[in-house]
Amino acid sequence: SYVLTQPPSVSVAPGKTASITCGGNNIGSVSVHWYQQKPGQAPVLVISYDSDRPSGIPERFSGSNSGSTATLTISRVEAGDEADYFCQVWDSRSDQWVFGGGTKLTVL
Amino acid sequence: EVQLVESGGGLVQPGRSLRLSCAASGFTFDDYAMHWVRQTPGKGLEWVSSISWNSDHIGYVDSVKGRFTISRDNAKNSLYLQMNSLRPEDMAIYHCVKDIGAAMTGGYMDVWGEGTTVTVSS
After folding, report:
1. How far apart are CA A107 and CA B43, in angstroms?
2. B79 near B70, Cβ under 8 Å?
3. Is the pLDDT of residue B58 over 90?
4. Residues of A in contact with B115 (CB under 8 A)
5. Are B109 and B41 a contacting pair, CB within 8 Å?
6. pLDDT class for B41, splitting at 50, 70, 90?
7. A75 CA to chain B: closest CA distance, Å?
8. Res B43 pLDDT > 80
C-alpha cells in the first residue's frame, strides 16, 4: 500500500517560516490534502488539492507538491499554529485513503 | 450548522462486537460520501472505511476487511460502522467524516466529528 512519510516534529520560532514535508512515491502525480489538529479537537482542513486554501484559513498557510515531496509552508508562524499536521492522499490503485504519520509543530 | 455526532463507543472484550453510529445534521446527507477515520496516540490518523452517497461503492482498509461493515441510512441521516471480532489494535477514537463529494473519488474530508472512543481489553 501507498506510504506517506512525515517528520515527527518540526520546531520554529514565532515569526519565522515552518515547512512540513510529506514524502511519497511520485506524490507529485496525486493531489495532497493537509489537516491541522489541535489537542482535544477534530482535524481541520488547511490545504486541499496541493495548494488550495479553504475559506477562513490564513494566507500564511500554503502548499506545494512536486516529485516525491509535498510541502506545507506556514509563514510568520504564530503560537496558535502549534498543532499536529497530517497529509493525506487518495491511492487510486487500492481505492484507499492514506494519511501521513503526522508532524507535531512546536512554536518555540 | 453542519454537525456530525458519533456514538456507540465503549469498552469491549477482544473478539466481541460493537456498532458505531453517526448522526448528521446541517447538510443534505444523501448528497455526500462518508468516512470513518480512527486515531490513536501512537499511529496518528488511519482511514478505516468509506461509503458513497447511495452505498454503491464501499471501501475498507486492509486490516478491517471481513470484520467491519459500513452502512448508511439516508432517511435517518445516519452512518454506521459494525465492528466484529474486535482486536486490541482496533482501540482508537473513531471519527465520522464527511466527504466533499458524493462518490469516492479522492476528494478531501471537510467536516469531522469529535469522535467516539473504542477500548478493546479483557
Report:
1. 23
2. yes
3. yes
4. 42
5. no
6. confident
7. 23
8. no
Grid coordinates standing for B54?
Answer: 447511495
Tell if the CB–CB gap between A102 and B45 is shorter than 8 Å. Answer: yes
Minimal Cβ distance to B47: which of A41, A43, A96:
A96
A95 CA to chain B: closest CA distance, Å?
A: 7
Is the pLDDT at B15 greater than 80? The verdict is yes
* Mean pLDDT of the B49-54 span: 96
Q: Which residues of B touch A33 (CB under 8 A)?
A: 108-109
Q: In sequence order, what E strands does chain B have?
A: 3-7, 10-12, 18-25, 34-40, 44-51, 58-60, 68-73, 78-83, 92-99, 109-112, 116-120
Task: Provide the 3-class DSSP secondary structure of residue A71.
Answer: strand
Q: Can you tell me the distance from the alpha carbon of A105 to that of A20, in angstroms, rounded to the nearest whole number?
A: 8
